[in-house]
Amino acid sequence: LESIDFKNALEQFQNLVEKMIIQKTQESSGLYTKDDDEIDYDKFYTTTRTLFGPAVKDQNIQTFFRKIMSNLDERPEWLEIFGCFTGGSDGMSSPSKESMVLLVSEKQQITHSVVKRKDIIKGMVKVPLLHFRVTASQRGVLTVFSKQRKSFFSYSFYFHQDTAWINGCDFLPNLKYVVAVTESTIILWDYKSKESKSNGFVIKPMKNCLLCVCTVTMADNLAKDTILMGDDKGNVYLLTITNDDFIMKQSKTEKESQFKVLDSESFNIPKRKLHDDWVGKVKYFSALKRFGSCSTDSIKSFVLDDMKRLEDHLPVKEFSVPKGVNAFTYCGKAKVVVTGG
User: Which domain of life is it from (predicted)?
Assistant: First the structure.
C-alpha cells in the first residue's frame, strides 16, 4: 500500500475500533440500542478487508476482534491486525542450527489436505493407546490420523453447519467417540463409521457459546465418559455420557439424518461460574485428580480444584494473574503447574 493511502486506511480502521469499543461499553451498561450502524464480526471483517485488502489474514482479523471483545481496557495495537507484535529487538540475528540449544529431528509432513482454503485447525489431540491423532477445523472438518506400517492414513467427515464454528475437540476413550464443541452444540462423531456413512450425535441447544472441551480420564467405569466444557460467560460444565444416552434420548421430532439429535434438556449438566470472562481452556489432570480452567479474567484467572466443586458451592482454589491466563499445563516430574498469559 502507498503511504498516503495506508495512512488514510489506518485512520478509518482506528475509528472503526473506537466505535466498536463505545458500542460494547454501552451494551455492558444496558444503554445501547441496536440500529443499522451496529458493528458485528461480519461488518468488522468486511470493513477491514476493504481497507487493507490481502495485506491482512482472516485469522488475524478474528484474533483482533476477539481481543477487543474480551477486554475493552487492554485494546490490541493496530500492528496485530497484520500479525505483527511490538517488542524490542536486541539486534541479534536468528541462531544457526549449530548454535541452537534444542535440536529437533526431521519431521514427516502429511500431504493429505484436511482443511480447505480459509479454514484453520482449532484442536488437535493425541490418543496414545490407539496410536492416532484427532484434529478439528474451525469450519467443521473432523479428522483421525492413524499411523500404521510407518505411514499415515486419515479419514475425515464434514459436519455441516450454518454459522457455528468448531472451537475444540477431544476423544472419548471408553465410548470410542470424537467429541467437539461449536458455539451452540456438542458433536459426538463415531469415527469408526468410515467412508461416506459417518454417524454420530449432536447435543443441542446449548444456551451459551462453548469455547473449549476436554475429556476426564478415569478408569473407574468403562461404560461412560465425562467431559468438561467452558463457555463465553465464565462457566465450566460437567457432562457424563453413557451408551444408554444414545438409545434413550434421541429426539423424535428430528428428521432422519446421519447425525441424531439429543436434547440437551434431557441431560444433567452441572455448571459453575468460575470466571468473569471467557474460559480459554479446560483440562483434567489424572495425576492430581483435579481439573484446571483459565480465563483472561485478571481476578479469577486460573482455577485448580476437585471435580466436586462443579456440583457444589464450596470455595475453589483460584489464582489471580494480571491480564489473565491463556494456557496452562502440569509437569509430573517437577510437580509444578505452569501458566502462560
Answer: Eukaryota
Q: Rounded to an integer, what distance in angstroms lies between the CA atom of residue 17 and that of residue 90?
A: 32
Look up residue 63 and give its DSSP letter: H
pLDDT tens profile 288-333? 999 999 999 999 999 999 999 999 989 999 999 999 999 999 999 8
Half-sphere exposure of 247 (CA within 13 A, CB side): 3
- Numbered ranges of CATH 2.130.10.10 in the chain: 121-273
Is 166:176 a contact under the CB 8 Å cutoff?
Answer: no
Distance, in Å, from the CA atom of 301 to the CA atom of 96, rounded to the nearest integer, reads 38
| CATH tag for 121-273 (out of 3.30.497.10, 3.50.50.60, 2.130.10.10, 3.40.50.10860) | 2.130.10.10
The DSSP letter of residue 250 is B
How do residues 163-216 score in pLDDT, each as one tens digit?
678 899 999 998 889 999 988 899 998 888 755 556 788 898 888 999 999 999
Type and span of the H or E element at 291: strand 290-295
Cis ω before 315 (30° cut-off from 0) = no
Pairing verdict, β 166-172 and 210-216: unpaired
Structural contact between residues 239 and 252, judged by C-beta atoms closer than 8 angstroms: no
Q: How far apart are CA 84 and CA 76, in angstroms?
A: 11
Helix (H, G, I), strand (E, B) or coil at 295: strand
Q: Return the sign of the alpha-carbon dihedral for residues 316, 268, 264, 192.
A: positive
DSSP, residue by residue, 323-338 = T--SEEEEETTTTEEE
pLDDT at 232 over 70: yes
Q: What predicted TM-score, i.e. pTM, was given to this entire model? A: 0.64
323: left (phi over 0), alpha (psi -120 to 50) or beta: left
- DSSP tag of 223: T
